[in-house]
Write a structure and sequence with these properties.
Elements (H helix, E strand, L loop, with lengths): L9 H14 L5 E7 H5 L8 E7 L6 H8 L9 E4 L5 E6 L2 E9 H12 L11 H8 L1 E4 L4 H11 L3 H27 L3 H22 L10 H5 L9 H9 L7 H20 L10
Parallel strand pairs: 2-5
Antiparallel strand pairs: 1-2, 1-6, 3-4, 4-5
Helix pairs in contact: 5-6, 7-8, 7-11, 8-11, 10-11
Length: 280
């Protein structure tokens, strides 16, 4: 369900310490954690550093944050109010890119509560935010609220969310695989490419939920797959094979369809839910 935070190179730790020292001095920042591949021990030399910054209103203005970050950032490296994936600030420190990912703490608390009660229902990366909390390295948590959330996530995987995904999303996967075959038939290869990504996204989302593993994100899926006790036979090899198939190859829909069928069988054998044959 969760992994232990991993050690990081000393020079990276020095960068993190410098950035955290600035963050904890910002009013209304209630917590900071190290996430991403660095936080889980899978980083390589080119990896950036992801710091999750938890806050309660009011957050400092972009101009105020830029002024603080420029004190430690490399010349010309500070970019604030980046909104491609939510609210982020980016800063280079000693040549290392640091991405600050801001999360309203009360929204996070509500997100966790929903996971355990009415269920999170996103088609992909459903529990990725929970993964960041459960597996990130806590760097600043003066009130202990982040630690409390982490303990809850470690104690029990949110079954309401798991059961919703296992019950309804196999039908979505079957529908999307069918879309691939139909799109190939009409020569709509761009849509085939779109749908094959969607199938991959939902498949791994379901697989992690089946194994009660919080979704680690879109990168290094083959490595994360090794943590799944329950998985279709030869799962890694079969997925790697699908990546070699062209969009107009008739074997693509068959290969994906069999992976989906095998995953559905595992879900049925698990017995936690009755798998629906319809969309919710």
């Amino acid at each position: 369900m969760t992994g232990e935070p991993q050690s990081i190179p000393a020079e990276w730790a020095q960068v993190v310490d410098r950035v955290v020292a600035v963050l904890v001095d910002m009013p209304h920042v209630v917590g900071v954690s190290l996430g991403g591949s660095t936080g889980t021990g899978l980083a390589d030399a080119s990896s950036d550093l992801d710091l999750h910054v938890y806050w309660r209103p009011p957050l400092m203005t972009p101009e105020e944050r830029a002024s603080r970050l420029s004190q430690i950032g490399d010349v010309g490296s500070v970019r604030v109010d980046v909104r491609s994936w939510g609210l982020e600030d980016h800063v280079g420190v000693s040549g290392r890119l640091v991405e600050l990912i801001y999360q309203h703490f009360d929204d996070l608390w509500g997100h966790v509560e929903q996971a355990y009660t009415s269920a999170l229902q996103d088609e992909g990366y459903t529990t990725a935010q929970l993964h960041s909390v459960a597996n990130g390295r806590l760097l600043y948590d003066p009130s202990g609220t982040l630690l409390a959330l982490r303990k809850r996530l470690h104690t029990e995987f949110p079954e309401a969310t798991r059961q919703h995904l296992l019950r309804y999303h196999p039908a979505l996967l079957r529908m999307y695989v069918n879309h691939i075959g139909r799109a190939q038939g009409r020569g709509d290869l761009l849509f085939v490419q779109h749908r094959r990504y969607t199938v991959q996204m939902l498949f791994f989302n379901l697989l992690f939920a089946l194994n009660r593993i919080y979704h680690p994100g879109e990168k290094r899926l083959v490595q994360h797959l090794q943590r799944c006790v329950l998985q279709p036979h030869d799962c890694t090899a079969r997925w790697l094979h699908t990546t070699t198939l062209a969009a107009n190859d008739s074997a693509l829909a068959d290969a994906l369809g069999q992976l989906v069928a095998d995953l559905t069988t595992l879900i049925e054998q698990d017995g936690s839910v009755e798998v629906a044959d319809y969309l919710y």
